[in-house]
Amino acid sequence: MVLPSLCLKAAAVLRQIEPILVMEQLGSSLYDTALQMVVKDRCANATYPDAHLSKEDSQQKAMSDFYMIYNLIIRLTPILPAVLLARLGDRGWRKVPITVPLSGYLLSRLGLLLVVVFRLPLEVMFGAAVVFGLSGGFCTFWPGVMTLVSLGSTTTDRSKVMMRVELLYGSVGLVGSLVSGHLFLLYSSSLGNGTILLIVSTLLHLLSLLHSIFLLQVKQVPNPEPEEEEDCHVLSDASGDVPMEAPAGINMVTMVLLFAAAVLYDVAVGGAIEILGVFVMKEPLSWTATQVGYGNAAGCMIFLTSFLGVIVFRRCVSDVMLILIGMLSFASGIFFMSFVTATYMFYLARSLNLFALIPMPTIRSLLSQQVPASSCGITLTSLQLSLKFAGLAYIPAFTKIYQRTLNWFPGFVFMLSSIFTVLGMIPISILGCRLPRRRQYERIQGD
What we know:
CATH class: Mainly Alpha
Structural class: mainly alpha
Oligomer: single chain
Number of domains: 1
Mean pLDDT: 85
Radius of gyration: 22 Å
Largest sheet: none
């Protein structure tokens, strides 16, 4: 009896989204380290005679220029495919926004493998980025995952469930990042460093794609009855953690405030992380492949601490306060990053970012509670597209600012990122002032 029961439980787990997330994130963490080291190696001999730059500054400029173009392509090309795939998802094809992007993940990882094996020009990765974007990329994949999670959870538990998914994603990324630097150094006959790492990454993405096609099952939790909904609302009021139910008419002011906060915070985080991978390659840090893996693991550790923060803080504070705590955590850590000159200082700065990943899933949770289930997918995708459009502006801006301040203050972009985070706290604070009045009004109407 025990064995059949275990088999049934294992089969149920395999039909969920979590195994796909594990394989995808593990493969992506291996790919990120490989791409970072391949770009560093290919840009080592870059020269800019007209700019009179030193060898290291020339390498930094070449690397930052590559990432600027690469990331702009990744943000620009998914816009139309993401909208189309999200509409298909909301019309009942819930697996499409997950399976199609996973095919793009697989092809882009295969592209880097071919670049390493056949010594192809680094510019080939721009084509791989186009393929990745046309498949929807992360812009479609992550909202698709969050939509399935939203549909499979109750309104009361949605923030916690979403953060649990973030925890799993970060935990797997932590493991993958820790081993990625060591795997990169392994040789495959005469093919050089990174080959085995990229083969493993490509296989993991292939397995995740096959899993999403043949095993993934869409599950939707039915909405509670009106009486149960009211009881839940009263209990939530007593605990101080009131979920925002989807209103009959969408409150556009709330939606705008949430979108504004998300965009400003994404500008801050995206701009800083965009430069951070290049920043650690220059003196005085000059990281190796192993150190790059450890640094990426430190970033993934934030997924764990953010999840613990949600579990602890949500018992005594509202979702709005959770977002503010997360933003303050990132602002302080990235401000300290401006003055990092040694590896131990880098980890101290990252340790201040303990709760930096709380804001975005919480904002997504609040947004999903503002609209009916039939519009959840397109709403979350619209948010992701807004972040993509913002990236078209802040990626070149942060890159050029970093290149201009490279000689006198390389950490200036991190200070700028901290300022944008503080600006992002303003609309959330306004939302926090509006919600208590609205809830009190709704409760009087209910009475």
